[in-house]
Amino acid sequence: MKIKGRTFILTGGASGLGLGTAQELASQGGYVAILDRDEEAGKRVMSGTFSYSKSVRFFTADVSDAENLEKAVDAAVTWTKETGKPLGGAVSAAGVAWTAKTLDRSGNPSSISAFKTVMDVNVIGTYSLCSLVASRLAAQPLDKLNEDGERGVIILVSSVSALEGRTGQVAYGGSKGAVASMTLPMARDLAPWGIRVVALAPAVFDTAMTAAISKKTKNKLAAMLEFPRRFGQASEFAKMVSSVIQNVIVNGAIIRLDGASRMGKL
Q: Over the stretch 248-260, which tens digit does the pLDDT of each residue have?
């Protein structure tokens, strides 16, 4: 699938990996509908990073609120009709992290409420976006120039924590494991409609989530990487998104972006 002239819906696009992806897709002639619950961050990127861009638009959306998310997706689809740039797919980059051991030092259980929030955003929010975007893609006529009959691609964001969750990552690792497990069955579900589904599983990247990590912990994490021994950059994640969009044979896969690392428990 070509990026140029197509619109991609991107959740969590006002910061981190999502913002890097928005910049990459826009630089290649794509149109990007950024969905994010942080309205202030959305205003900042639209008045700064994309201040002169007509190919990027911001929509306030909370992926954990199904009704709110559907309104935002429909608004983005309406925008595609205004621009004449058809929907090409979505990148589900919205996510939250929460670290807590199953039991604290006194033997008390961790917060069920916080655990549920992680699941609502990372799992339910991801599935909600996928189902909404898939239904809109399925309603679009096939591109006559596309010999494979591809209507679009949906890219999920899992994590190496899905398989190598560190201490205190039961909620986060569990949620990203669920996202990874969705990938193949969803790809099979949507294959008759010409829609691909691929998951990316990054290790440690420079984002708002990792900014709060202590220098000592960052050094330990970097030491687990084989090469390069540094945190990944949003631009590197974005390049993989770009490659997946353009390579139609990639489907139902979980692709690690991890510097050959295998995370320890810390």
A: 999 999 999 998 8
Active-site residue, selected from the candidate residues 31, 52, 127, 172: 172
- Domain 7-257, second-level architecture: 3-Layer(aba) Sandwich (3.40)
CA pair distance 153, 187, nearest whole angstrom:
10
Buried b (16+ CB within 10 A) or exposed e, 96-106: bbbebeeeeee
Q: In this structure, what are the phi and psi dihedrals at residue 55, rounded to the nearest 5 degrees?
A: -100, 5
Helix (H) or strand (E) holding 164: helix 161-164
Beta carbons within 10 angstroms of residue 40's beta carbon: 8
- Residues linked to residue 11 through DSSP beta bridges, in sequence order: 35, 92
User: Does 172 participate in catalysis according to the annotation?
Assistant: yes
Closest C-alpha to 88, from 77, 101, 98: 77
Q: pTM here?
A: 0.93
